[in-house]
Amino acid sequence: METTQPQQNGDEELLETGFFSDVKVLCGHKTWELHKPILCTRSSFFKKALTETGCVELHEQNPTEVGWVITFIYTSKASPDLTSLLEDQNTMADTCVRLFTIGDYFGLDCLGDMVARVLYVNYIATAREVQLTQDPTGISDQFVNGFFQTAATAYACCPSSSGSLREVFAKFFELSRFLILKDQRFRAQLRNIPELSHDVLMLLVKHEDEDEDDDRCMVLFDRPPRCIGCRREGVNFFPLTWVERGEDITLDRKTDRWDGIGPEGYCEQCVRVFEKVPDAFPPIEEGW
User: Fold this and answer.
1) Pick the CATH number of 1-87 from 3.30.710.10, 3.40.50.720, 3.40.50.1000, 3.40.50.970
2) pLDDT by residue (tens digit) across 167-202?
């Protein structure tokens, strides 16, 4: 799991040794000997707090979480104990919520970017299973509750300009081909986060000025009636292929059925013949 950003050379050594420290940060039983230039250039909170003093006392914060923040400021990566929490499915969602909150308090947008990458890796694995099974009911209640708890905190704490962080939640709906909208659990909790609902809707709506030559649609609530390659019915459709909207609506007089209405797709055999297997799970963009 990727929980790092490009490391700042030498800063980790300064944190470990305290060499040339000129400020102190106190929280609970913990005291850190730190460096004003590093703190003030990477955290808007410390830039303001250290304007006229060389010591900052934090009374309302958790010392462990403050340690996470300081380690991240100096090393651009998660501390070992934080990494363990982010890799454990039982603690990941709650830990991300804590990171959102403390990152917002200390003015660390880059911390949100790290969380976004962690969430993206986790959500893409679940979306893959949904695409393969075509059944979102197999997703655990723990995952669903954790997903919306984390999303609610992210949308509450992070401004709309924090694109990568907000995008990861709507992206999960897209990567699952919006099949999770068939699940009452997702529909019910989605109503509680109007901005997320809006972002999901924007992914569903195709704008006229965007991708004019792209007739593909990731929405697949119903399987196609037959393969548009071999025309057979009752076949297994390749789960990772795109479903295409029919361009021409015609009446097949032999079968007395309309073609071009509803979803269209290739069966497992034809999808390989026609090379209709796109990269349904693109790599995470470098900016994440």
Assistant:
1) 3.30.710.10
2) 889 889 988 888 898 899 999 999 999 999 988 888
